């Protein structure tokens, strides 16, 4: 399925992701925060708890692309058969930031989103309707049009945005618990949601403490080539600091 269009990629910036989240319908009791370590207790202590979801920005290296193609070749065709998680196939070029955000907002408790909001409307449209992956992709594309992603968010941030349509070698994915208390890796470039297994006792109340999350992100870092070892960024969705 070819990309429907290409957008200006979002910057890995908690303020931008929070603003876009509020536009979509996230409750103002939550916001995004930078994460500087998953293992340093002192740095983790600065994060308000609980953490509901994580967005990872990582480099698309040759090692990663080989890994992705190998794993996807082993996977069957996904037909939205998992009722415990919402996953969206990415069909908007450079739109991975939006998909990563939607993967969190569509899967957190409805108590944490506003009624009659765009995100609740999206979930209502896709839930329990036996829609195909392609049909859901079209609904997400219509949502992006209504958001006006480039016009409203494409040029925001501290760094200069790349020209529209220029390919970038960085990619956003998300991690969040499903309704079955399993940790899921959600990436619109893959062939479906990736079930990482049941969340343990350490991650029960806050996903950032989950060992499976720490191990999977460390796997990506360890498999990056030397020039990309530091091209990673993490954001966490948790309580506001105000």
TrEMBL record:
The record ties this protein, via PROSITE patterns, to:
UCH_DOMAIN (PS52048)
Q: Where is this site: Transition state stabilizer?
A: 90
Give a Gene Ontology cellular component term annotated to this protein: cytoplasm
Q: Which Gene3D superfamilies match?
A: Peptidase C12, ubiquitin carboxyl-terminal hydrolase
Q: One GO BP annotation here?
A: ubiquitin-dependent protein catabolic process
Q: What's the Enzyme Commission number for this chain?
A: 3.4.19.12
Native organism: Candida orthopsilosis (strain 90-125)
The GO molecular function terms of this record are: cysteine-type deubiquitinase activity
In Swiss-Prot or TrEMBL terms, this protein is called Ubiquitin carboxyl-terminal hydrolase
């Amino acid at each position: 399925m070819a990309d429907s269009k290409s957008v200006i990629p979002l910057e890995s910036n908690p303020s931008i992701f929070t603003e876009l989240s509020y536009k979509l319908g996230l409750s103002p009791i939550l916001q995004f925060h930078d994460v500087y370590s998953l293992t340093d207790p002192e740095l983790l202590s600065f994060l308000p708890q609980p953490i509901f979801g994580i967005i990872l920005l990582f480099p698309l290296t040759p090692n990663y692309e080989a890994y992705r193609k190998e794993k996807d070749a082993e996977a069957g065709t996904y037909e939205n058969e998992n009722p415990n998680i919402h996953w969206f196939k990415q069909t908007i070029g450079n739109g991975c930031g939006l998909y990563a955000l939607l993967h969190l907002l569509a899967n957190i408790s409805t108590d944490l989103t506003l009624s009659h909001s765009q995100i609740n409307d999206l979930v209502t449209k896709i839930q329990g309707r036996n829609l195909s992956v392609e049909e859901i992709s079209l609904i997400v594309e219509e949502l992006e049009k209504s958001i006006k992603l480039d016009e409203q968010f494409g040029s925001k941030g501290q760094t200069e945005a790349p020209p529209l349509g220029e390919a970038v070698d960085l990619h956003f994915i998300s991690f969040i618990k499903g309704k079955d208390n399993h940790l899921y890796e959600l990436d619109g470039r893959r062939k479906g949601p990736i079930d990482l297994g049941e969340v343990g006792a350490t991650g029960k109340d806050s996903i950032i403490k989950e060992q499976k999350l720490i191990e999977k992100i460390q796997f990506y870092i360890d498999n990056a080539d030397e020039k990309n070892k530091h091209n990673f960024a993490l954001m966490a969705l948790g309580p506001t600091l105000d």
